[in-house]
Design a protein that fits this description.
Length: 509
């Protein structure tokens, strides 16, 4: 089968897992998603597209602005917020294939990207309107073009890579740590050039590298400059959320850090995120066969790292990239004290986890092939016959395994998770129903939503009221007056600050 056909199959499968039943699964609309939607609607109607939206603990603006485009195209529906994530998810799969193909080979690239295409962890966040899903997409494409630039010396690769890296700062707070992994990798890459090349060739390659990295740095800074300037003038928005969830605010930060690290490393194969929005509560993020392949790939990464040091006098740049990506990407997770283990905050490292899973599975296949190739067979035609049979058996086994994993992941997401009533509760399906009920009531009746839940205020109203505001399209006071729908805090209700002739509906009963 041609490689492009395999890539097409992977993309089609990724699309099916991300777009099927997107209008109904997951049910409901979580208030954080609705907050994005309300900001997006405001941006559409005012033309004020922001680099950072400070409400609801603050969010970088790129994803919300893309959601605004989707709402303009498809209307003000919950699924229109989520379809942006689905598109981003599919683009991540394609980028992962291209990156892994450049780092390893097309076989590992195909396996890795397919495992992520069907993997519950990435599929789930590709169907929810959270901005975090953009970070791994921009990262895989940024690294892909950077690696092309390092290999070829062509400046346009460095330029394109810089655009992706610069845009990454507009996506998710965890992205801010990732440049550390880039710096570590480039330092090791530079050291490897000194070891592998003679003086004359090293001088030439160094000159090419310096030109490319200078262009990369310039463009990345220019792209990130608007949000950098925003944070410079609004430092509380940069540090606010970090301070709220930081492990260093706890009584014993070192002990908490150790516990967080253990929980986070264990979430792939032992105990995963307990939040139903993020996971089948408590289950490992990876199906057990994928988890085993991941461990094999992870251990092999360390093995190849030190093997290169013994044989070439320097560390492997590819393995340093993967390991630093993994461990630096986990820094925002293990240094937080909120809801650990946390699958959403760790989404930055999903690509490298699946790269290792693909590498681990390919290594097992290769070992089986070695077993047959090294059999003590004297008859040449028998050897060829065995090799042909073993190759067919290996391909068949791989196809059966991947098909089995596909059915298992599909069932896990669309049946075991998607139809579980806990998921409807986690995404506040009841809030959507309240909003639909308010829409169905006569416009001349004054309708009040008593927002008796939520602890973060947005325009004076607890943030959990955002879902009803999106469903009824009443985020602004002007729209509330036009539709005769108003919002009350508990204090306002107790003080009687509303028209007693209206209908009061509590958000939580």
């Amino acid at each position: 089968m041609p490689k492009w056909t395999i890539v097409l199959v992977i993309i089609v499968v990724a699309a099916v897992f991300r777009f099927q039943h997107i209008t109904s699964t997951p049910p409901g609309l979580y208030p954080d998603e609705a907050m994005n939607g309300n900001n997006a609607i405001q941006a559409i109607e005012t033309g004020d597209y922001k680099v950072f939206y400070p409400e609801n603990n603050g969010r970088e603006g790129l994803f919300i602005n893309l959601q605004a485009l989707s709402l303009r195209l498809f209307g003000y529906h919950p699924w229109a917020l989520r379809i942006v994530s689905a598109i981003v998810g599919v683009l991540t799969i394609l980028g992962l294939y291209l990156l892994t193909n450049r780092l390893f080979n097309w076989q590992i690239a195909a396996i890795s990207s397919y495992l992520m295409a069907i993997g519950f962890w990435h599929v789930n966040f590709s169907r929810i309107g959270f901005r975090a899903i953009m970070a791994p997409m921009l990262l895989v494409w940024g690294i892909y073009f950077l690696w092309r630039g390092l290999s070829s010396g062509r400046l346009w690769n460095f330029a394109v890579s810089a655009v992706f890296w610069g845009l990454g700062f507009y996506t998710y707070i965890a992205f801010r740590a990732i440049p550390l992994a880039l710096i570590i990798t480039l330092l090791v890459y530079w050291h490897s050039l000194k070891k592998d090349y003679g003086h004359e060739k090293y001088e030439y390659v160094r000159s090419q590298l310096l030109r490319g990295l200078a262009l990369f740095l310039l463009i990345a800074i220019l792209v990130a400059l608007p949000i950098g300037y925003y944070f410079w003038t609004h430092p509380s928005d940069f540090f606010g959320r970090l301070g709220q969830v930081s492990v260093f605010a706890s009584g014993n930060p070192l002990q908490s850090l150790a516990q967080n690290t253990a929980q986070t490393l264990g979430m792939f194969n032992f105990v995963g995120d307990h939040n139903w929005r993020h996971n089948v509560a408590g289950q490992p993020l990876l199906l057990w066969p994928v988890g085993i392949f991941f461990i094999i790939g992870f251990l092999r990464s360390w093995f190849k790292l030190f093997k290169r040091a013994r044989t070439h006098g320097h560390l492997s740049s590819v393995q340093v990239l993967l390991l630093s990506w993994f461990f630096v990407g986990l820094i925002p997770v293990v240094t937080s004290n909120e809801g650990l283990p946390h699958a959403l905050r760790a989404i930055m490292i999903a690509p490298v986890v699946f790269i290792w899973a693909g590498e681990g599975l390919w290594w097992l296949i290769d070992k089986v092939g070695d077993f047959y190739r090294n059999r003590d067979v004297h008859e040449v035609h028998i050897r060829h016959h065995w090799l042909k049979e073993s190759s067919f058996a290996a391909v068949l086994a791989l196809v059966v395994l991947l098909a089995s994993l596909t059915f298992a992941e599909y069932d896990k997401y669309f049946n075991k998770w998607g139809k579980n009533p806990e998921v409807a509760g986690a995404f506040n399906q009841n809030y959507v129903e309240i909003g639909e009920g308010l829409n169905a009531m006569p416009q001349n009746v004054k309708k009040y939503l008593l927002v008796n839940a939520g602890d973060v205020l947005v325009n004076g109203i607890p943030n959990l009221g955002q879902t009803v505001m999106f469903v009824t399209d009443t985020y602004t006071p002007e729209k509330q007056i036009a539709k005769n729908i108003y919002y009350l805090t508990v204090e306002q209700f107790e003080e009687g600050r509303y028209d007693r002739g209206g209908v009061v509906i509590p958000l939580e009963r």
